[in-house]
Amino acid sequence: MVLAGHLGDEPAARAGLGEESAVVRASALGALERLGALDDTTLGRSCGDPDPVVRRRACELAATRPTVDLRGALDDTDPLVAEMAAWALGEQGATTAIDALAQMATGHDDPLCREAAVAALGAIGDRRGLPVVLAALDDRPAIRRRAAVALAAFDHPSADDGLRRCLTDRDWQVRQVAEDLLGVDPA
Protein backbone atom coordinates (compact mmCIF):
# COMPACT_ATOMS: atom_id res chain seq x y z
CA MET A 1 0.00 0.00 0.00
CA VAL A 2 2.80 2.40 0.84
CA LEU A 3 4.28 1.77 -2.60
CA ALA A 4 1.05 2.91 -4.23
CA GLY A 5 1.69 6.39 -2.89
CA HIS A 6 5.24 6.40 -4.20
CA LEU A 7 4.37 4.88 -7.55
CA GLY A 8 1.43 7.16 -8.31
CA ASP A 9 -1.08 4.31 -8.17
CA GLU A 10 -4.20 6.05 -6.91
CA PRO A 11 -6.57 3.14 -7.72
CA ALA A 12 -4.46 0.78 -5.57
CA ALA A 13 -4.34 3.32 -2.76
CA ARG A 14 -8.14 3.77 -2.88
CA ALA A 15 -8.61 0.01 -2.90
CA GLY A 16 -6.57 -0.15 0.30
CA LEU A 17 -9.26 1.81 2.13
CA GLY A 18 -11.52 -1.22 1.90
CA GLU A 19 -9.01 -3.79 3.14
CA GLU A 20 -9.63 -5.81 6.28
CA SER A 21 -6.29 -4.87 7.85
CA ALA A 22 -6.35 -1.60 9.78
CA VAL A 23 -2.65 -1.08 9.06
CA VAL A 24 -3.36 -1.31 5.33
CA ARG A 25 -6.27 1.13 5.61
CA ALA A 26 -4.11 3.59 7.55
CA SER A 27 -1.33 3.19 4.97
CA ALA A 28 -3.84 3.82 2.20
CA LEU A 29 -4.69 7.17 3.77
CA GLY A 30 -1.00 8.09 3.77
CA ALA A 31 -0.62 6.96 0.17
CA LEU A 32 -3.59 9.05 -0.93
CA GLU A 33 -2.19 12.05 0.93
CA ARG A 34 1.17 11.60 -0.79
CA LEU A 35 -0.61 11.48 -4.13
CA GLY A 36 -2.59 14.63 -3.37
CA ALA A 37 -5.76 12.57 -3.74
CA LEU A 38 -7.00 12.46 -0.15
CA ASP A 39 -10.25 14.38 0.10
CA ASP A 40 -11.91 15.67 3.26
CA THR A 41 -14.85 13.28 2.89
CA THR A 42 -12.59 10.23 2.88
CA LEU A 43 -10.61 11.62 5.78
CA GLY A 44 -13.73 12.40 7.79
CA ARG A 45 -15.12 8.93 7.14
CA SER A 46 -11.82 7.41 8.30
CA CYS A 47 -12.08 9.32 11.58
CA GLY A 48 -15.01 6.99 12.29
CA ASP A 49 -13.22 3.78 11.27
CA PRO A 50 -13.79 0.84 13.65
CA ASP A 51 -10.04 0.56 14.34
CA PRO A 52 -8.13 3.15 16.39
CA VAL A 53 -5.03 2.78 14.18
CA VAL A 54 -6.98 4.20 11.24
CA ARG A 55 -8.75 6.85 13.32
CA ARG A 56 -5.42 8.06 14.74
CA ARG A 57 -3.84 8.30 11.28
CA ALA A 58 -6.88 10.14 9.96
CA CYS A 59 -6.65 12.67 12.79
CA GLU A 60 -2.95 13.13 12.12
CA LEU A 61 -3.56 13.82 8.44
CA ALA A 62 -6.40 16.20 9.27
CA ALA A 63 -3.97 18.53 11.08
CA THR A 64 -3.43 20.46 7.85
CA ARG A 65 -7.11 20.46 6.90
CA PRO A 66 -9.15 22.89 8.99
CA THR A 67 -12.28 21.87 7.08
CA VAL A 68 -12.21 18.45 8.79
CA ASP A 69 -13.97 18.78 12.14
CA LEU A 70 -12.20 16.63 14.72
CA ARG A 71 -14.10 17.73 17.80
CA GLY A 72 -15.94 14.41 18.00
CA ALA A 73 -12.62 12.54 18.00
CA LEU A 74 -11.70 14.22 21.30
CA ASP A 75 -14.19 11.82 22.90
CA ASP A 76 -12.71 8.73 21.25
CA THR A 77 -12.55 5.69 23.51
CA ASP A 78 -8.88 5.21 22.57
CA PRO A 79 -6.77 7.84 24.35
CA LEU A 80 -4.17 7.84 21.56
CA VAL A 81 -6.83 8.84 19.05
CA ALA A 82 -8.18 11.56 21.36
CA GLU A 83 -4.63 12.84 21.96
CA MET A 84 -3.94 13.01 18.23
CA ALA A 85 -7.24 14.79 17.63
CA ALA A 86 -6.29 17.44 20.20
CA TRP A 87 -2.89 17.94 18.60
CA ALA A 88 -4.44 18.19 15.13
CA LEU A 89 -7.04 20.73 16.30
CA GLY A 90 -4.21 22.85 17.66
CA GLU A 91 -2.39 22.60 14.34
CA GLN A 92 -5.59 23.57 12.54
CA GLY A 93 -5.98 26.62 14.77
CA ALA A 94 -9.54 25.45 15.39
CA THR A 95 -11.11 28.22 17.47
CA THR A 96 -14.40 26.31 17.25
CA ALA A 97 -12.82 23.60 19.40
CA ILE A 98 -11.86 25.80 22.37
CA ASP A 99 -14.69 24.55 24.59
CA ALA A 100 -14.12 20.89 23.72
CA LEU A 101 -10.36 21.22 24.25
CA ALA A 102 -10.97 23.00 27.55
CA GLN A 103 -13.17 20.14 28.67
CA MET A 104 -10.48 17.63 27.71
CA ALA A 105 -7.73 19.65 29.43
CA THR A 106 -9.64 19.79 32.69
CA GLY A 107 -11.55 16.54 32.77
CA HIS A 108 -9.92 13.75 30.77
CA ASP A 109 -8.67 10.77 32.76
CA ASP A 110 -5.57 10.33 30.58
CA PRO A 111 -2.74 12.77 31.37
CA LEU A 112 -1.44 12.62 27.79
CA CYS A 113 -4.83 13.79 26.54
CA ARG A 114 -4.90 16.64 29.05
CA GLU A 115 -1.39 17.63 28.01
CA ALA A 116 -2.27 17.57 24.30
CA ALA A 117 -5.37 19.68 24.93
CA VAL A 118 -3.34 22.27 26.85
CA ALA A 119 -0.78 22.35 24.04
CA ALA A 120 -3.56 22.77 21.48
CA LEU A 121 -5.06 25.67 23.42
CA GLY A 122 -1.64 27.31 23.39
CA ALA A 123 -1.20 26.64 19.67
CA ILE A 124 -4.58 28.23 18.97
CA GLY A 125 -3.81 31.15 21.29
CA ASP A 126 -7.41 32.25 21.69
CA ARG A 127 -7.94 34.21 24.92
CA ARG A 128 -10.85 31.91 25.89
CA GLY A 129 -8.34 29.12 26.46
CA LEU A 130 -6.15 31.10 28.86
CA PRO A 131 -8.02 30.21 32.11
CA VAL A 132 -7.72 26.52 31.27
CA VAL A 133 -4.00 26.81 30.53
CA LEU A 134 -3.52 28.62 33.83
CA ALA A 135 -5.47 25.89 35.66
CA ALA A 136 -3.16 23.29 34.10
CA LEU A 137 -0.33 24.77 36.16
CA ASP A 138 -1.76 22.67 39.03
CA ASP A 139 -1.62 19.35 37.14
CA ARG A 140 1.20 16.82 36.74
CA PRO A 141 4.73 18.03 35.89
CA ALA A 142 4.52 17.23 32.17
CA ILE A 143 1.24 19.10 31.91
CA ARG A 144 2.60 22.03 33.92
CA ARG A 145 5.56 22.20 31.51
CA ARG A 146 3.20 22.19 28.54
CA ALA A 147 1.07 24.87 30.17
CA ALA A 148 4.13 27.06 30.78
CA VAL A 149 5.05 26.80 27.11
CA ALA A 150 1.45 27.46 26.08
CA LEU A 151 1.35 30.67 28.13
CA ALA A 152 3.79 32.23 25.65
CA ALA A 153 0.91 32.41 23.14
CA PHE A 154 -1.13 34.75 25.31
CA ASP A 155 -0.52 38.47 25.54
CA HIS A 156 -2.27 39.04 28.83
CA PRO A 157 -1.13 40.02 32.33
CA SER A 158 -2.49 36.80 33.83
CA ALA A 159 -0.30 34.79 31.43
CA ASP A 160 2.73 36.71 32.68
CA ASP A 161 1.60 36.11 36.26
CA GLY A 162 1.29 32.40 35.50
CA LEU A 163 4.81 32.31 34.10
CA ARG A 164 6.15 34.11 37.18
CA ARG A 165 4.38 31.52 39.31
CA CYS A 166 6.23 28.83 37.34
CA LEU A 167 9.55 30.29 38.51
CA THR A 168 8.96 28.60 41.87
CA ASP A 169 7.51 25.32 40.56
CA ARG A 170 8.94 22.19 42.18
CA ASP A 171 9.78 20.78 38.72
CA TRP A 172 13.04 22.19 37.36
CA GLN A 173 11.84 21.93 33.76
CA VAL A 174 8.78 24.06 34.49
CA ARG A 175 11.07 26.61 36.13
CA GLN A 176 13.42 26.47 33.12
CA VAL A 177 10.60 27.17 30.65
CA ALA A 178 9.47 30.15 32.72
CA GLU A 179 13.01 31.48 33.03
CA ASP A 180 13.52 31.20 29.28
CA LEU A 181 10.22 32.83 28.39
CA LEU A 182 10.59 35.63 30.91
CA GLY A 183 14.28 36.16 30.18
CA VAL A 184 15.19 35.55 33.81
CA ASP A 185 18.74 34.60 34.74
CA PRO A 186 18.46 31.97 37.50
CA ALA A 187 21.89 32.84 38.92
Tell me about this structure.
The protein is mainly alpha-helical and 187 residues long. It folds into two domains: 1-68, no CATH class; 70-187, Leucine-rich Repeat Variant (Alpha Horseshoe), CATH 1.25.10.10. The chain is built from twelve helices and no strands. Helix 2 packs antiparallel against helix 3 (22-35) and helix 8 (111-124) runs parallel beside helix 10 (141-151). The mean pLDDT is 95.
Strands, count? 0
Low-confidence stretches: none
CATH architecture label name of the largest domain: Alpha Horseshoe
- Highest CATH level, the class of the largest domain: Mainly Alpha
Question: Rg to the nearest angstrom?
Answer: 19 Å
The level of helicity is 55-70%
Distance between the termini: 55 Å
Can you give the mean pLDDT? 95
User: What's the overall geometry?
Assistant: elongated
- Give the CATH H-level superfamily of the largest domain: Leucine-rich Repeat Variant
CATH topology call of the largest domain:
Leucine-rich Repeat Variant
- Quote the beta fraction: under 5%
The string of secondary-structure elements, in order, is HHHHHHHHHHHH
Q: How many domains is the backbone divided into?
A: 2
DSSP helical segment count: 12
Main pleated sheet: none
**Which structural class do the helices and strands define?**
mainly alpha
